[in-house]
Amino acid sequence: MTVVRDVPKQLFIGGGWQDAESGRTLSVDNPATGEELCQVADASPADGRRAVEAAVAAQAAWAATPPRVRSEILRRAYDIIIARTEDLALLMTLEMGKPLAEARAEVAYGAEFFRWFSEEAVRIDGGLTTAPDGRNRLLVTRQPVGPCLLITPWNFPLAMGTRKIGPALAAGCTIVLKPAPQTPLTSLALAAILKEAGLPDGVLNIVVTTNAAGVVEPLLRGGKIRKLSFTGSTQVGRILLAQCADTVIRTSMELGGNAPLIVFDDADLDVAVEGTMVAKMRNMGESCCAANRIYVHTSVADEFATRLAARMAALKVGDGTEPGTDVGPLIDNAGRSKAHDLVRDAVKRGATVLTGAELPEGPGCFYPPTVLTGIAPDSAIIDTEIFGPVAAIRTFDTEDEAVTAANDTEFGLAAYLFTQNLDRALRVAERLESGMIGLNTGLVSNPAAPFGGVKQSGLGREGGRVGIDEFLEYKYIAVPVGA
Hints:
Blueprint: H1 2-6, E1 11-13, E2 16-18, E3 25-29, E4 36-41, H2 45-64, H3 67-83, H4 85-96, H5 100-120, E5 127-130, E6 136-144, E7 148-151, H6 159-171, E8 175-178, H7 185-196, E9 204-206, H8 212-221, E10 227-231, H9 234-245, E11 250-254, E12 259-263, H10 269-281, E13 291-297, H11 298-313, H12 333-348, E14 352-355, E15 370-373, H13 380-383, E16 390-396, H14 399-407, E17 414-418, H15 422-431, E18 436-439, E19 458-459, E20 472-480
Helix pairs in contact: 2-8, 3-5, 3-6, 3-7, 4-5, 5-6, 10-11
């Protein structure tokens, strides 16, 4: 494939493409076929240190770069991404599996973070006030936090990068980016685009590695990284938080989810089914925001489940590059096995399969869209993030019952509810313990909105006007009146 051939396969350090110090490489595979796409450099701890050194060396000059210059680099990168939508979409589909239509949508969504933060770069503000006793002027400025380590997952290869890189660059921070080893090609392509857009050498550095723990921990304990932004599992997030404690690194984390979706008896079922399809099936269900626990009022449960199963059964499963494909492969065999094990456990405990639930034959990591009803309360699927195309439906009778069930989790990233009653909508939305609520919609992500969760789903927010705050520090200067 030309798009794979054209992507640099080395580490990006100090503005140049470099082999790993050890000469090691890792394989990037197509989950639709199981075949290798290419080999890319596999970084060692020494490579990670060189990347940090490059970021530290570039920090002062980048922080002093005028906001308008930083803004225009991001805007040029946005324009390049949009112009290369088809190539970037195909690249994502090949390394991650999502259908081309979804990949194109991710390009548009991911690029928007660069445009959004190009506009925020020139709006970093401070303040000047007088102390209550009149003796001092209180001058407040905002400065970049410093070199950042950004760690992104495999499920949204472009958007997860731009959502972190955009505000960091806009704020004046330099970066070491560690993308997931399953999907490094999109990140490497993004580095090439930013270099083309005029980003100075050393401001962005990329290390791809299969030894994440060995590379990341020394960087966090080394005292030069001042900010960590991580998207991934809560389990890994806890480990990283502990490692950040030694040098009191500022952190923001988007961690696991276990999103509830509630359909009340007065919901418009057409809207509810459509919203559930989006909340459940976007990215084959491989999203931290995916609806994981579906609660439907007893009076409409049968009709809702029948409609949802019909929609799910009609989806075409196949290679994401093929026309008409609705559902691509899961990322790897481990992901597919996890989804199937959760389904088998639920069925063993009494669940009914309305569609799907059978492992397909042949190559690739495919799993059929699946709908289960009658989920027993002790089923693992209730407490485990599925990360696959499986809709698990339970019923409820009262509002309190639904809200209690929805909140009965350590996670709190996203939640969804469907009702035509405005009072109920606002009341339930306020009671749900989630950082984001989809009200009569299955899509909550938007570059202009703050993205993040509560409880063990994370710390801080990405996107929106507050997204750049994660990369800025306040500095207060006391100026005596008359000085």
